[in-house]
């Protein structure tokens, strides 16, 4: 297929790219999105790069699913509802037609389940596969969750076990994020490891934390659960008066102390999660 034929094929796969506030979608120079007056917009972009985020041998359907899932996980952490996405994909010419279609099948399957319209993007060639996904989300005005609201005495909770395999699909915790809006005081998605992402939450909130337990996924080690990343669970804080939501686990408490300090098993836990530039 040439580029025009490929774009038309993707437009049909995406169902035309209109709805959920998308007025004009695939086929125009720009997508047109119309939010409601009482909504705040959330804009999130995330990259997926061959040999950095995934191996060359990973199935394209999984790559596509993870490309969108990573960005949706951040939308979930804001307590928001995804509406549409833009996808920029570059890859070698030798891996074009069938790889691209399989990639978008994986991406669009997750988009359909989460109500995320593929509104447009760009396709080009490169020496290795590089994908950038931008998601537009909405939340009631003034109600978005951030990293900056945790206070001493809050419960520290997580949405699932940590240290999971990183070569599988991502299930963004969107429904939970929406339930946390109005209850949680702070929230972050666990993409770079508990130790690093909890440090970030505490730093933004100007508090410290004490971790009492770490829920470990089957087959994982404590070290991976603490520092491995790629879990895409939600880490959040709740006032003491609230019970943890069904399916979530309390793992500790927000405490007074130097901003960003985390204690675990009587020692300071260093933020050793994934860092692209270490």
Indicate the mean pLDDT: 92
Radius of gyration: 20 Å
Largest sheet: 7 strands, mixed
Largest sheet, order of strands side by side?
8-10-7-11-9-12-13
Write up what this structure looks like.
By secondary structure, the protein is an alpha+beta fold. Helices cover 26% and strands 27% of the residues. The chain has six helices and 13 strands. It has a seven-stranded mixed sheet, sandwiched between helices. A four-stranded mixed sheet has the order 3-6-4-5, covered by helices on one side. Helix 2 (60-77) packs parallel to helix 3 and helix 2 (60-77) packs parallel to helix 4. The model has no long low-confidence stretch (mean pLDDT 92).
Which keywords apply here?
single chain, 278 residues, alpha+beta, seven-stranded mixed beta sheet, four-stranded mixed beta sheet, 6 helices, 13 strands
Task: Summarize this structure briefly.
This protein is an alpha+beta fold and 278 residues long.
What is the fold's blueprint, element by element?
Blueprint: H1 3-13, E1 22-24, E2 32-33, E3 39-49, H2 60-77, E4 81-91, H3 97-114, E5 117-125, E6 130-140, E7 155-158, H4 174-180, E8 186-189, H5 194-205, E9 208-211, H6 222-227, E10 234-238, E11 249-255, E12 262-264, E13 267-268
Parallel strand pairs: 4-5, 9-12
Antiparallel strand pairs: 1-2, 3-6, 4-6, 7-10, 7-11, 8-10, 9-11, 12-13
């Amino acid at each position: 297929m040439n580029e025009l034929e490929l774009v038309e094929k993707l437009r049909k796969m995406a169902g035309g790219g209109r709805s959920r506030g998308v007025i004009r979608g695939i086929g125009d120079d720009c997508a047109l999105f119309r939010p409601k007056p009482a909504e705040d917009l959330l804009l999130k972009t995330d990259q997926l790069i061959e040999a950095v985020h995934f191996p060359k041998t990973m199935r394209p359907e999984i790559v596509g699913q993870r490309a969108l899932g990573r960005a949706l996980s951040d939308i979930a952490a804001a307590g928001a509802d995804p509406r549409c996405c833009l996808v920029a994909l570059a890859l070698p010419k030798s891996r074009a037609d069938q790889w691209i279609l399989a990639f978008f099948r994986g991406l669009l399957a997750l988009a359909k389940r989460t109500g995320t319209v593929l509104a447009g993007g760009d396709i080009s060639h490169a020496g290795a596969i590089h994908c950038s996904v931008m998601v537009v989300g909405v939340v009631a005005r003034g109600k978005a969750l951030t990293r900056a609201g945790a206070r001493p005495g809050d419960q520290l909770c997580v949405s699932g076990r940590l240290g999971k395999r990183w070569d599988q699909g991502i299930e963004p915790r969107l429904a939970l994020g929406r339930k946390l809006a109005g209850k949680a005081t702070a929230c972050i998605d666990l993409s770079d490891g508990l130790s690093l992402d909890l440090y970030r939450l505490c730093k933004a909130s100007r508090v410290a934390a004490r971790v009492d337990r770490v829920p470990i996924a089957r087959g994982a080690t404590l070290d991976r659960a603490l520092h491995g990343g790629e879990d895409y669970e939600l880490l959040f804080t709740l006032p003491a008066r609230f019970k943890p939501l069904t399916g979530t686990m309390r793992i500790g408490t927000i405490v007074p102390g130097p901003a960003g300090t985390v204690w675990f098993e009587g020692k300071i836990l260093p933020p050793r999660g994934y860092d692209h530039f270490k």
